[in-house]
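Example 443, ligand iron/sulfur cluster.
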Amino acid sequence: MRTLTFKGGTHPPHSKKATENLAIERANEPKVVVIPMQQHIGAPCDPIVQIGDEVKVGQKIGEAKGFVSVPVHSSVSGKVVAVEPRLYSGGMAVPCVVIESDMQNTVSAEVTPKGDLSKLSAEDVKNIIKEAGIVGMGGATFPTHVKLAPPPDKKVDTVILNGAECEPYLTSDHRLMLEYPDDVVFGLQALMKALGVKKGYIGIETNKPDAIEKVYEAAKGIEGIEVVALKTKYPQGAEKQLIFACTKREVPSGGLPADAGVVVNNVGTAAAVAQAIKTGMPLIERIVTITGAGVNNPKNLLVKIGTSFREVIDQCGGLKGNIGKIIAGGPMMGITQFSLDIPAIKGTSGILVLSEEEARLPEPSNCIRCGKCVETCPINLMPVNISACSLANKHEQAEALNAMDCIECGSCSFVCPAKRPLVDSIRVSKREILARRKKAQSK
Ligand code: SF4
Ligand code: SF4
């Protein structure tokens, strides 16, 4: 098997030992779920239930608004007790449906198997994926059906499944590939059918040899599907880096994977597609890695969407010692949380609890012009220069240095010996540039 990679990148400690060998366990049934109507990139859903309504597992409770949006479903059976804004892991309050579970898990009559994949048309598959509320489960939460409808001038011929899981600490994709390899492969076949393409790759980092073996066995003999070993390097799972590693094609600056003829999905997304076709169950639960020095018993749990971080951490023996930081996702690209009373959503791949010592940030010092950030940037940017423009409020100059191409992987900050706030400052410039573009468009 070939081992593939990309230029640049870095090698943060894997920190996966605590959970990589732990089988997925089903989390306890939550007594209450808080289900956000905004769990995806795009327009939020409109709630279609009211206080007092009885709902069942898999029942649609939020209707998608517009093309770049997906419906939201109930993860429990029970009674709606509130429809109101609540805080979610994106850092703001969004409309949520709050449901008290009756602990019966009664499944909605809407949930029925969708039949044999070979008899479904490409349109059927796209509709099943859309109606099941499936989004990118690696954390990006982009609606999957939108990726399956590239503009007619983009000739897509390849689907890549991302099984790199290059973020330190996280092992949810690793366990998924070990325990449900057939679903991963079935999901890839469905995605290939939806796009009408004949070539599919499943890319897995070499630090997961057992997953490579399992998925390889599951895909053996299936025409057009190739399992490839990827060098263990961060950010191997970023779209552009994955596309280059598998196909040697480059996505142009400002372009999309479809510009290189490729659609990329996470292995978790493929497994969700498989479930939506095989059982008809929409996306109502996901595997979450709960880990870090601040958790007593780290685990990989299958968690119902809407379960609070607090409840999930309690099932892992609760918090341990002095807590420095709680992150939704991994340490490189995750989002810091200021409360445990927020719900797990479709994009929650991990809950990472760092101790005070792990989370302590060294004071930044002056740049020593070592060039390590430039050498490491997988996009070939000049992080030191973009950051300097951002800190001087010169966002137009940051734009000219292609700040918008930054994928916010954090590699530059990680390697910087002076601990300069590189990715944070570049993020500020990106936000400013976007705001200016939006303002210019509205004139
Ligand atoms: S500039 Fe952006 S893309 Fe480049 S290393 Fe830094 S965070 Fe990653
Ligand atoms: S890595 Fe840090 S110290 Fe080195 S050039 Fe970049 S910003 Fe300066």
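Summary: Residues 376-377, 379, 381, 383, 406-412, 422-423, 426 surround iron/sulfur cluster (ligand 1) (CB under 6 Å).
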